[in-house]
Structure formats: C-alpha cells, structure tokens
Write a structure and sequence with these properties.
With about 70 residues, the chain is an alpha+beta fold. The protein is about 25% helix and about 15% strand. It binds zinc ion (ZN).
C-alpha cells in the first residue's frame, strides 16, 4: 500500500500566486487554498477568533448586566 504524499511535497501554495477559493463572510477578505475555516449556518469564515466574533457578534458585557442585576 502506497501513501500519496503529493500534497505534502507541494507544500502550501504561495497566496500571492493562487486565486482565492472563497470570500470570508466575516471580514470580507479572500480565503486561499490551505487556510483553515469555520462553517456556520453554511457560511464559510476564517478559523480565527476575530472572524468568529465579528460573524457571531455575541453580546459583550459584564455578568451583572447579562443577568439584569443591579451593580
Ligand atoms: Zn475572515
């Protein structure tokens, strides 16, 4: 049995020469071959904290505010 190592031999393509495969739905920048992504509700975004947060837009506040209690 032979293991195909072609994808390792080539290494990651130079992003300057390669056409993007997708556009990130969070930051709007291109997503190139070999990049890690998240899929959320069918949308593809970069697998980064920045893109994840800007896509999900979770509420950011103190715990007291979230619970509606007086501080
Ligand atoms: Zn992004």
């Amino acid at each position: 049995m032979t293991v195909n190592l072609d994808r390792f031999a080539q290494g990651l393509p130079d992003s300057q020469d390669v056409a993007p495969l997708e556009q990130c739905q969070a930051c709007g920048r291109e997503i190139y071959p070999g990049e890690d992504v998240y899929i959320l509700d069918g949308y593809i975004i970069h697998a980064t904290v920045d893109c994840l947060i800007s896509f999900v837009k979770p509420g950011y506040m103190k715990i007291e505010e979230a619970l509606g209690v007086q501080v």
